[in-house]
Structures are given as C-alpha cells and as structure tokens.
TrEMBL record:
The keyword Coiled coil applies. The lineage of its organism: Bacteria, Bacillati, Actinomycetota, Actinomycetes, Mycobacteriales. Residues 177-296 form the Recombinase domain. The keyword Disulfide bond does not apply. GO terms for molecular function: DNA binding; DNA strand exchange activity. Keywords: Coiled coil. Residues 19-170 form the Resolvase/invertase-type recombinase catalytic domain. InterPro entries: DNA_bind_recomb_sf, DNA_bind_recombinase_dom, Resolv_N, Resolvase-like_N_sf, SSR_resolvase, Zn_ribbon_recom_dom. SUPFAM superfamilies: Resolvase-like. Residues 391-418 form a coiled coil. Pfam families: Recombinase, Resolvase, Zn_ribbon_recom. SMART domains: Resolvase. This is Recombinase.
Length: 549
C-alpha cells in the first residue's frame, strides 16, 4: 500500500478521494430567521453555492457546519468549534466557504482559523474569491480579510453615527445614569416611544451627595459609605442584580454632567431633553473640588513624549511610563520604567530604559516594517485586483438596485399621468408618491454607500502602503509631534525586552501588510525624501480614517 503523510496523519493514496467540508454563517438572529425559516434565505444560498464549488473540485461534501446568528469577529461559535474538532480526526481536503467574511471578520480570528486548517492539512477555498497557497494568494487572502474586518467595523461606525444623531437632538444613548429611569410611553396616537424620567427613589440621594460634597468638608469615601447605609444601589437588570455603588462608579457619577441636563459623548457635551436634578452651581463647585484634590495627589508630571502610550515591558506586559531623575551632578535625565514594577502589581524586575535607547529601538522598528517602491507597486496591483474582484461579485446586486430605481421612476411618471387624466385623486397620488420617494431615497443611499465604501477602502489601504515606503526616513526627520502621530498610526504596542530588542504589534491596517505577508515581493524601506509636513498630514489623515471605521 502506498502511504504519504499530511498534517502528521498517514494518507492512503490508493484509496484516496477528495473530501470537503462547508461552512455557512449569518451575523444576526434576524438574518438567521428571515422569511420565517430557522436559517433564513442566506444560508441555503451559501449551501448551494458551496456544493456547486465542491462539484467543480470533484470533492464529496462529507460534513457541513452552520452558525446562524453568530458574529464573524469571534471564535466562540458552536459549529466553528465543532469544525476544529472534526478536521483533527477526519481526512479532509477542502474547507469551502461562500466568502472569506463568512469565516471571519477579524484579522486575528482569521489567523487562528487559518492555523487550524493548515495544521490539519485542509485547503481553504472561497466560492467568490480567488485564493490559494501561493504567495500572491496569501497576500490576496490577507487583504480580503482586512477588508472584511473593515466592513464589520464600518457597521459599528453606522451605529455610532445613529447614537451621535440622537444625542445631538437631546436624546439619551443607552441606559440612563443612576438617579434616572429608562421608561416606555405611548403618544396620543398610540405609538410607543422611549424616554427618561427622574427616579423618585434614587434622585434625592444623588442630590444629597452633591450637596454634601460641595460643602467641602466630607470625603468621597465618607459620602459613599453614608449613601450605601441609606440604601443607594444600582438599578437591577435581567443580567445583573442590584448592588451598592462602587467607589470608581461614584467618582464617575460626580463627574457626570447628565445631572445638570447635559450629555457627554465622545469628548463633546450636548444639551439633553431630560430634567436636571442638580443645580449647575453646585455641580461646578464639585468639579473644582475634585480637580484640586486630584491635583494634590499627582506624583508625577505629565510629559507629552512622542513614544508615550506605545511602549510596553516584554517581561510582564505592563506599560512603560516616562519618569525623570537627577544624577549626583544635578543633571536631569529621562527614562522609561515598567509600571508593573513601580506599582508592585507584578514581580517584574525589569530595569529602566533610557529615553535615548528607547528612541533608537523605535527607529529600528520603522526600518524593519518599511517597504520599497517596487514592493508598493506590486502591492497596489494586488489591492486593485482584490477590490475589482469584490465589486464584480456585487455587480448583480448593483444592477438590481439600478433597475429598481428605473422601475420606481417609471411608476411615478405613470401615476402623475393617471392623475392628470383624472384616473386617481390627489390623495392617492400623494400616498403613492411618498412611497416611491422613500424607495428611491433608500436605493440612492445604498448605491452611494456602496461607492463610498469601495473607494474609501481602496484609498485607505493604498495610503497605508504608501506610508510604509518612506516611514523610516521620515520618522527620523520629523519633529516630536509628527513622530507622536506616526507612532499612534503605525503601532498598537512596542514591547522592549531585557535584551533591549523591540517586538512590535502593528496597528491596522499595517498588521495585514506585515513583513511576513509581503516577503515574496521583497525589498526594504527606501530613502525617499518627503517633506516632514507632508508626512505629518498623511499620518493624521490615516489616524482619522481609522477612528471613523
């Protein structure tokens, strides 16, 4: 008998036949139950497409895995976990998915799934995307995974946009703070709406707490103890029982402008529609007292160093913070120390890192992640091809939207002609025209959103790759503010070990364009000269792009 090995298991070549497993997923319970079916319409469509692909490959589908109503940004999916176990104990040739985003919408999740498939000797196949195990295929897979993650986060951004709009009109986002209650009411027309009312049980206790602290002779700890004795607790929810307010929670309560009728959201403050329960003058005095007492407790001054916030201890994973000391000659020098060691949260013995050494290590990190102009050109071609392929898969949907728009416009003209011919009255015309206007607006929104996402994502990744072509040179030439912006754009964390060697965690999208992914097109950072101001603008723009996605 002829025998080979794959993923550590013997493979019987004489009796070997191609086998496949399929994976289907939709994100929400609503999608999963669409049309009155447990799996909705999407999963059967995925199943049929996956089966056709298996037939094209000449493979028999031996098992299918379905996760209806589960997010692609987590590994905690029942059938995904069952799939991991299955491929460890069964001989499987292919894992077929309709699109890569059905399998994962997060880069780290995608990497974990890829590792499990590779270890089991299973080849991943996408029905709608051309991927394989060649270097170019690996790159396309990486780019498409980054795009899938971008789409997922863009959905979250749309939710945030809705919340911002609600707040701008005075509404309360989410659960109201302690002292208020979220309630449901009905309008005179019988429509249900949600609003906020003063909690008659807790609001008097909140008012008392502000008044006592504003007097200036009672500590936060003493007031919180008295409040607990008076019976102040959080509002119970189906998931969490009522409990006393924590110290950190009480500090947040005292800082919250909601109690004077204002709403703080994403650093901005808006006028709210809810009634205030604390006098503005009392609240402002409380803020001044909190500020003065917090200032008295500060042990170290704040220093805006370009490396601030990105350096971590490789030993205990704690953040490195900037500190200063003077030598015997009175000369002041700066260094980074492990916060885990100084706070004694850990048993770390990591020595301090002089700022000069830390800066050199970061410069070295830029040299390692930089790419050449030739690499950029090759990558740009791959990205263009990936986006063009994605748009091709959406061509049918876009054509249907355009056709529906023409149909509604034609219907509008017919209705108008019918009205002029006295076939329908004005009220009927208005009713149908309102319906048509709503339909046209929705179609226009979808078409515009599709175009913005397509062009925005392409520009986003292209900007990221262009930055990599001269990042090392420009970082060296930039001032501290530009360096700070660049560090925040390129890195999530930089770990410094005892051997004073850096290990980096790149920020998105650079983590999808890592040196391992790019190695087949080669090259290192060039010394392209770009004005420092241009470098700062590019990194600022990229950071803003990331924050809105």
């Amino acid at each position: 008998m002829t025998t080979a090995y794959t993923a550590g298991r013997p493979l019987d070549l004489e009796n070997f036949h191609l086998t496949a497993i399929t994976y289907q997923r939709v994100s929400t319970e609503e999608q999963a139950a669409k049309g009155g079916q447990r799996e909705g319409f999407s999963i059967p469509a995925q199943r049929q497409a996956n089966q056709r692909k298996a037939d094209e490959l000449g493979a028999a589908v031996v098992e299918e895995f379905v996760d209806p109503g589960y997010s692609g940004r987590t590994l905690k999916r029942p059938d995904l976990q069952r799939m991991f176990k299955y491929i460890k104990t069964h001989q499987v040739t292919y894992c077929i998915v309709h699109k890569l985003d059905r399998l994962a919408r997060d880069r780290l999740v995608d990497l974990e799934i890829q590792r499990a498939l590779i270890e089991a000797g299973v080849t991943l196949v996408s029905v709608t995307e051309s991927i394989d195990e060649t270097p170019s295929g690996t790159l396309v897979h990486g780019v498409m995974s980054a795009i899938a993650e971008f789409y997922s986060k863009n959905l979250a951004a749309e939710v945030t946009k809705g919340l911002t709009q609600k707040i701008a009109t005075g509404g309360t986002p989410g659960r109201a703070p302690l002292g208020y209650l979220n309630v449901r009411k009905h309008s005179e027309e019988g429509r249900e709406y949600r609003t906020v009312e003063v909690d008659p049980e807790r609001a008097p206790l909140i008012q008392w707490a502000f008044a006592v602290y504003a007097a200036g002779d009672t500590s936060v700890e003493k007031i919180l103890t008295d409040l607990t004795a008076r019976g102040l607790t959080t509002v119970a929810t189906p998931q969490r029982p009522s409990k006393p307010v924590s110290k950190s929670g009480f500090f947040k309560l005292l800082r919250n402008p909601y109690y004077i009728g204002r709403i703080r959201y994403n650093g901005a403050v808006y006028d709210g529609n809810h009634p205030p329960i604390v006098d503005t003058e009392v609240w402002e005095r409380v803020q001044r007292l909190l500020d003065s007492r917090a200032h008295a407790d500060v042990r170290f001054r704040k220093h805006e160093h370009p490396l601030k916030g990105i350096l971590y201890c490789a030993t205990c994973k704690s953040r490195l913070h900037l500190d200063f000391a003077r030598n015997k000659q009175g000369i002041r020098y700066a260094y980074y120390v492990c916060s885990g060691r100084t706070s004694k949260r850990t048993t770390c013995t990591r020595k301090a890192v002089p700022v000069g050494i830390a800066e050199d290590l970061v410069q070295t990190s830029y040299q390692r992640i930089g790419i050449s102009e030739a690499t950029y050109t090759e990558l740009a071609k791959q990205v263009d091809a990936a986006f063009d392929e994605r748009m091709a898969t959406r061509s049918q949907e876009l054509a249907e939207l355009t056709a529906n728009r023409k149909r509604l416009e034609a219907e509008s003209e017919k209705l108008l002609a019918a009205h002029f011919a006295d076939a329908i009255d004005l009220d009927t015309l208005k009713r149908h025209q309102d319906r048509i206007r709503t339909g046209l607006a929705e179609i226009d929104r979808k078409l515009e959103n599709d175009h913005e996402q397509y062009t925005g994502q392409r520009k986003y990744l292209t900007s990221a790759m262009k930055l990599l072509t001269y990042c090392a040179t420009m970082y060296r030439q930039s001032d501290d503010e530009a360096k700070r912006l660049a560090n925040q754009a390129f890195f999530d964390k930089i770990y410094i070990g005892e051997d004073e060697q850096p290990t980096v965690e790149l920020a998105e999208p650079f983590n999808a364009l890592s040196p391992d992914t790019l190695s087949h097109v080669g090259g290192s950072s060039t010394s392209t000269t770009v004005e420092p101001r241009r470098f700062e603008l590019l990194t600022s723009a990229l950071q803003r792009q990331r924050s809105t996605n």
